[in-house]
Amino acid sequence: MPVIFKVFRFDPSIDSQPRYEMYEVPAEKETTVLDGLIYIKEKSSKNLSYRRSCREGVCGSCSMRINKITRLACKTHIFDVLDDNFGQIEHLDHLQVITDLVVDLEHFLNDNKNIRICINTNLTADKIELIRKT
Ligand code: FES
Q1: pTM of this prediction?
Q2: Is 62 close to ligand 1, i.e. is its CB under 6 Å away?
């Protein structure tokens, strides 16, 4: 059964304004939103940009808003989230858009580096606090 994706599009190198484009996507019970985006990129819009990596719900790179809720596209089955076979697919709303569904993760990744230092060590709370202050 085909569904309709309304996808946020914006390429700052050619677009003066963001826009949405509509795509028809064939879907079955197990089809994920990421499967739908891959279909669009292969069949309709080769310049559609999004991130994906593991396709297992581990890396988080396919995070996006699907019908206004932040979800992992690779773990979200289309028919679990669509309203009347319609889905609005957008970038994460708290990060700057680079192009289409790709957002700037630099700030997030830098914060993540700082967190990992505390989790992966056997430092005492006093030493962690000392590191934070320096
Ligand atoms: S591709 Fe890794 S969580 Fe979706």
Answers
A1: 0.81
A2: yes
